[in-house]
């Protein structure tokens, strides 16, 4: 799976979890940009990503995400 | 198969969930039916929160839709926002219109022990006390036996103090939770034997907690059982606990919220009353009309036959705890009854079935007739049918009937029906034990009625004995149950908790009556509850309710004679009646007029007030013995 496919899936999950009608993906998206992204929806977002891609992040990995691009990099590394 | 996390008894959430929710949100006037249909599906954690937001925003539009309003306080030793945000939609699934007052995280003692706390000031109807093993000091082993004992006692004392605080300061009963055992053990199997291991501490705590709650008026959400049904390794998520202090896995939230919603509904008296059973491929394998009595599969010899027998056994167990059974089948009546009378393996017999409808009419119409015959609402029915088309027709016509998605394998029927929790209850007494038999006796009374030519003869033939007594401790649970469940014959629809009933019983300014009725067919148990406020001149009726199964038996005239005599003896000159209209109590709009009261006021809210002059009131002669 290439990076573009991963970002496509992550965008879909974000629309669902954050209840967005549309979202233009960029690596720089973060909780500061998306209003519905709070500590609770963040947890559901991470869990939804894990479920979709079939692995689990460590606490250290989650703590290292400051924007969506970091998360996508981590997914790419996990499923490589 | 039946993964409890997926709420398998519900239809799956629609693929276009977000579009549907958006349409509901965008419309100027709320489509309450569409919203209620949406929450009847198995929403995941994200969907629950999104639907809950709409429920909370439209709470004013939903009021009056026959839903039971309830304000829940939440006090937790862990993050509870996820629970608070998911609950309104889960509660709506159970006909409860919920608002939540969430105390600050970790502020349990402050919220409950201080009468000035914002939680206490909010006057919640009930308070969820969600504590975890860490907060109770039960998360680490204490292998010294004396210390182990003291640790459990300390934890229970703390919970007891919080419960007492909730009563004293917020005036609300508490929902306590059992603790789920951690996955990890210290020794292995030996943990269970050794005082002071975490497994031992939690087991002791749970056992003693359950014992302390029984009969107290507080309630239990059995989290330990919920966690066990899905598996502890699925329930606990160590990472979420460490990262966010979430008490369980995100996937567990829909199940937790649904079970809490069901408990709140039971607290409000909204449990289902009747299980309606299909026959072919539900109670037995095969089609009785085609396969004949020797061709159907039931009992020993086949897995399918055993599975259908298990459905019958479960139905009988439910009946023994007060759930009424009925049959609704597309069949010739004579064929449908054959196995009940002629098949040696049948556990269910005709005498267990209060209403037996086997015909070719559509099932929704038959369900309406079953409800009417039993004098209960269609919203008190659960309909068990293996046929997806029949289930869909009933859901379409009667969305208020609970229709579990039992799948096509009879081996799953009992588990899914049990997991759904339609018959959740918060108390169990002699009334419940005898209820199913009472409904069957009612069917016999109805038959007796057709054999006598007039009502007076019928009444005389019943040998009725009516017993009227003031509220007492023994009757308290049933009085509260009636106050919460009675909708139709209820003049004011005021709801009371057990604690309220105890306070009213002790209040010298109140005159109370609990009324029982027996006849030659059986004891109907407690069937009417009245509360009057005593005044020097006037006694004012605050609550007058009666079970519809004794309608037309002149019980209301007997209780009026009783209170009139008491008021007169106390020197009062008038009884004052009040009628507050609700969505369900139109049948008693003229109740006071029928009893000889004169209307004194038409209120703007549609209510009416009435007065009965005690100087001129003459008690009637009644066809019953009064005790």
From TrEMBL, chain B:
Q: Which InterPro entries match?
A: BF1531-like_N (IPR049369), FkbH_domain (IPR010037), HAD-like_sf (IPR036412), HAD_sf (IPR023214), HAD_SF_ppase_IIIC (IPR010033), SGNH_hydro_sf (IPR036514)
Species of origin: Sphingomonas populi
The lineage's top-level taxon is: Bacteria
- Domain BF1531-like N-terminal spans what residues? 71-259
Q: Which Pfam families match?
A: FkbH_N
Q: What is the lineage of its organism?
A: Bacteria, Pseudomonadati, Pseudomonadota, Alphaproteobacteria, Sphingomonadales
Supply the name of the protein: HAD-IIIC family phosphatase
Q: Which SUPFAM superfamilies match?
A: HAD-like
GO: which molecular function terms?
Answer: hydrolase activity, acting on ester bonds
């Amino acid at each position: 799976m290439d990076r573009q496919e991963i970002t496509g899936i992550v965008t879909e999950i974000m629309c669902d979890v954050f209840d967005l009608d549309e979202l233009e993906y960029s690596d720089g998206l973060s909780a500061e940009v998306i209003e519905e992204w709070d500590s609770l929806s963040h947890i559901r977002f991470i869990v939804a990503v894990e479920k979709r891609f079939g692995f689990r992040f460590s606490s250290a990995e989650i703590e290292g995400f400051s924007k969506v691009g970091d998360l996508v990099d981590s997914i790419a590394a996990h499923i490589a | 198969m039946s993964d409890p996390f997926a709420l398998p008894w519900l239809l799956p959430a629609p693929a276009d969930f977000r579009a549907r929710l958006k349409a509901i949100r965008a419309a100027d006037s709320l489509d309450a039916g569409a919203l209620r249909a949406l929450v009847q599906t198995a929403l995941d954690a994200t969907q629950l929160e999104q639907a809950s937001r709409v429920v909370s925003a439209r709470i004013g539009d939903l009021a009056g839709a026959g839903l039971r309003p309830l304000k829940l306080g939440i006090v937790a030793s862990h993050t509870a926002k996820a629970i608070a945000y998911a609950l309104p939609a889960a509660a709506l699934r159970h006909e409860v219109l919920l608002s939540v007052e969430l105390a600050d995280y970790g502020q349990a003692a402050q919220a409950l022990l201080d009468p000035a706390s914002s939680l206490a000031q909010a006057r919640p109807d009930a308070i969820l006390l969600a504590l975890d093993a860490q907060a109770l000091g039960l998360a680490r082993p204490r292998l010294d036996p004396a210390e182990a004992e003291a640790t459990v006692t300390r934890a229970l004392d703390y919970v007891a103090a919080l419960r007492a605080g909730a009563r004293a300061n917020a005036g609300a009963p508490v929902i306590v939770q059992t603790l789920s055992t951690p996955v990890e053990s210290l020794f292995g199997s030996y943990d269970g034997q050794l005082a002071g291991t975490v497994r031992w501490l939690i087991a002791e705590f749970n056992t003693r907690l359950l014992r302390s709650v029984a009969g107290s008026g507080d309630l239990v959400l059995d989290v330990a059982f919920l966690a066990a049904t899905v598996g502890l390794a699925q329930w606990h998520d160590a990472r979420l606990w460490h990262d966010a202090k979430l008490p369980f896995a995100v996937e567990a939230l829909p199940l937790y919220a649904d079970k809490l919603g069901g408990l709140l509904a039971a607290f409000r008296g909204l449990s289902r009353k009747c299980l309606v059973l299909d026959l072919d491929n539900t109670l037995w394998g095969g089609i009785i009309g085609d396969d004949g009595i020797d061709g159907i599969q039931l009992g020993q010899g086949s897995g399918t036959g055993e599975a259908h027998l298990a459905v019958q056994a479960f139905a009988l167990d439910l009946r023994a705890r007060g759930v009424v059974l009925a049959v609704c089948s597309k069949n010739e009546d004579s064929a449908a009854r054959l196995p009940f009378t002629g098949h040696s393996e049948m556990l269910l017999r005709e005498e267990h079935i209060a209403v037996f409808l086997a015909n070719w009419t559509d099932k929704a119409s038959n369900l309406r007739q079953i409800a009417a015959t039993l004098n209960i609402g269609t919203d008190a029915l659960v309909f068990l049918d293996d046929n997806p088309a029949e289930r869909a027709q009933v859901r379409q016509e009667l969305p208020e009937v609970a229709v579990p998605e039992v799948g096509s394998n009879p081996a799953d029927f009992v588990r899914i029906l049990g997991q759904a929790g339609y018959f959740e209850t918060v108390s169990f007494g002699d009334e419940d034990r005898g209820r199913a038999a009472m409904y069957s006796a009612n069917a016999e009374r109805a038959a007796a009625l057709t054999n006598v030519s007039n009502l007076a003869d019928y009444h005389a033939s019943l040998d009725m004995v009516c017993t009227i007594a003031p509220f007492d401790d023994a009757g308290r649970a049933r009085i509260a149950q009636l106050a919460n469940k009675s909708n139709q014959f209820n003049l004011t629809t005021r709801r009371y908790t057990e604690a309220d009933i105890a306070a009213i019983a002790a209040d010298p300014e109140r005159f109370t009556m609990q009324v029982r009725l027996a006849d030659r067919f059986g004891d109907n148990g407690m069937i009417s509850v009245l509360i009057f406020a005593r005044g020097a001149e006037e006694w004012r009726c605050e609550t007058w309710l009666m079970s519809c199964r004794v309608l037309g038996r002149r019980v209301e005239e007997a209780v009026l004679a009783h209170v009139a005599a008491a008021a007169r003896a106390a020197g009062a000159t008038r009884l004052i009646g009040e009628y507050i209209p609700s969505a369900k109590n139109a049948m008693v709009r003229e109740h006071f007029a029928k009893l000889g009261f004169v209307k004194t006021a038409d209120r703007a809210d549609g209510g009416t007030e009435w007065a009965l002059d005690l100087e001129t009131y003459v008690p009637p002669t009644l066809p019953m013995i009064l005790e």
